[in-house]
Amino acid sequence: MNKDQVKGVVEQVKGKVNEAVGKATDNPGKELKGDLQQGAGKIRKAYGDAKEEAKDDAKRNNP
């Protein structure tokens, strides 16, 4: 697991918290911020996953 994967998951969790707070307080701005954070977190995690996959492929191809 690399730092982009970890930071992506953390961002997703923060987004879920912000979304829940926005719903609980009837604050659409906070809810939207949470949705955007979750999306950004998913993208960052996917980037980290791709980096990890490339690293694994390089190890397999260069024993």
Automatic annotation (TrEMBL):
<dbReference type="InterPro" id="IPR008462">
    <property type="entry name" value="CsbD"/>
</dbReference>
<feature type="domain" description="CsbD-like">
    <location>
        <begin position="4"/>
        <end position="56"/>
    </location>
</feature>
<dbReference type="Pfam" id="PF05532">
    <property type="entry name" value="CsbD"/>
</dbReference>
<feature type="region of interest" description="Disordered">
    <location>
        <begin position="19"/>
        <end position="63"/>
    </location>
</feature>
<feature type="compositionally biased region" description="Basic and acidic residues">
    <location>
        <begin position="46"/>
        <end position="63"/>
    </location>
</feature>
<comment type="similarity">
    <text>Belongs to the UPF0337 (CsbD) family.</text>
</comment>
<protein>
    <submittedName>
        <fullName>CsbD-like</fullName>
    </submittedName>
</protein>
<dbReference type="InterPro" id="IPR036629">
    <property type="entry name" value="YjbJ_sf"/>
</dbReference>
